[in-house]
Amino acid sequence: TNSCPELAVSSSECDDSSEQIAEKHNVDPSVFCASADDLQFSENKEMSNENSEVVEDSICENSAEAIASSLFKQFSMAYKPRSAADIQWLVSYAQAPQRLLPMPNDIAIFFDELGNDGRPIFFRGSENWAPPRKQWIFRLHPELQSVRKLLEHQQYRCGGCGIKVAKVYYRRMRYCDYYGKVFCQRCHQGAKSRIPARIVYQWNFKEYPVSDIAYRFLLDNRRQPVINASAIDSRFYSRIRRLKKIKEMRIKLVHVWSYIRLCKTAKETITKYGNLHSLFLTMPNYMLSDADVYSIEDLENVRKGELFRIIAPLVEYGQYHVEGCEHCRAQAFVCELCDRKDDLLFPFQVEYVNRCEECGSLSHQKCATKRQKEEKPCPKCLRIQQNL
Prior knowledge:
By secondary structure, the chain is mainly alpha-helical. The chain has helices spanning 11-25, 36-62, 64-78, 147-153, 196-202, 212-220, 229-232, 236-239, 241-260, 276-281, 285-289, 296-304, 306-324, 326-329, 365-373, 379-387; strands at 174-176, 181-183, 192-194, 207-209, 227-228, 270-271, 274-275, 293-294, 353-355, 362-364. Among the domains are: 111-221, Zinc/RING finger domain, C3HC4 (zinc finger) (Herpes Virus-1, 2-Layer Sandwich), CATH 3.30.40; 233-331; 332-388, no CATH class. The strands form five sheets. Strands 1-2 form a two-stranded antiparallel sheet. A two-stranded antiparallel sheet has the order 3-4. The protein has a two-stranded antiparallel ribbon with strand order 5-8. A hairpin with a 6-residue loop joins β9 (353-355) and β10 (362-364). The longest helix has 27 residues, at 36-62. The radius of gyration is 49 Å and the shape is elongated. Residues 1-36 have low confidence and may be disordered. Residues 1-20 are annotated as: Disordered.
C-alpha cells in the first residue's frame, strides 16, 4: 500500500531472502517455508507440553519429597543463627566431646526419705513407709474407727504407692480390709473380695473392699492350699458342724488312698463313676496327703456343700474295696489291747477305731477308753521304749 511502502515485500523476495539465509547458515530452506497445517500442529504440541508441565509441577508440589524440602527450607531460614550472640546457648564440642550432659545433683527428696546422715535411703521403702508385700495375712485387723487417724498413723502416705497426701484429702482415701491400711484412689479402685482371716476365724464369706494389689493376689492364689486350719485356729472344727463332717471325710480319704495307691486290683476296679484308681487321681495331691490343708476355694466349696459331694463317693467306693480286697486286708491292723485277729482294723474306720498319737497303733474305741480309765500306757509305745 501507499501508506507503508517499506512493508510491501513480494513473495519472490521473501523466497530469495530465505534461501540466502539458509545458504549462509547451511540450513535446509524447507525449514523457513512452513504450511498452515504445520504451524497449527506446532501450536497444538506446544500447548500440550505446557499442560503436561503444569500437571507435573502440581504433582511434584504435592509429593512427600517436595513437602519435606520446603519444610527444610523454612526451618533453615527460621532458625539460622544471624550473629554470635544467637549461639551462646549452644554447647561446644570442647565442653562436651561426644558425651551427654551431666544430670543435676539437686533432686527433690522428702525429708523422711533421708537417713540420719542426710543421705538418701535406697532400701525398700523408707523408715516411715514400705510398699505392701504379696503375702498371706491370717489376722483380723481392728475395726476402722477413723480414716484420718489411720492416715496420720501412716505418716500421711498411701499404703500402696507411698505418695504424700495432704490432710484436706483424707476423705478421698479408701480402706483395704486385707492389709488394714488406707490407699489412694489410684491404688484402691473399689474392688471387693473375701478375706481369708474372716473366713477362718468368723466363717464370714462376705466381700469387703480391698486394694488393687490385694484383689489380684487373692484372685490369683485362691486355689493355693495355704490354710492349715488346725494350726491357725485350734477351734476351727469345733465351731461349725459342717466342718466336723468334712474333717472326718478328709481323714478317711487320706487313709483310703494309702491303700488304693499300692493295690494293683484297685487299678482294674470299675465303679459307677469310672476306674477307682483314676477317680482318686482327679483330686489335688494335697487332699490325698494332708487332711488339714485347705485353699480359699475349698472352704467356699465346704460352705456350699460341694466338697462333701465330691469326697463322699471316693471314700465309699474306696472303703468298700479295701475291706474286701485280700491284698489290702494283708496290710490291716489288729487291736493292741484285745488282740482279736478275726477283727481287722483300718485307720479310716474312725467311728469305732482309736489311733495312738505317739506310735500310730490302732485299737478298738471301747478298749482304748477302758485303758485310759485304768491309766495304762499304750502297749506298742512300751515295746518301742524297751527296744531303744
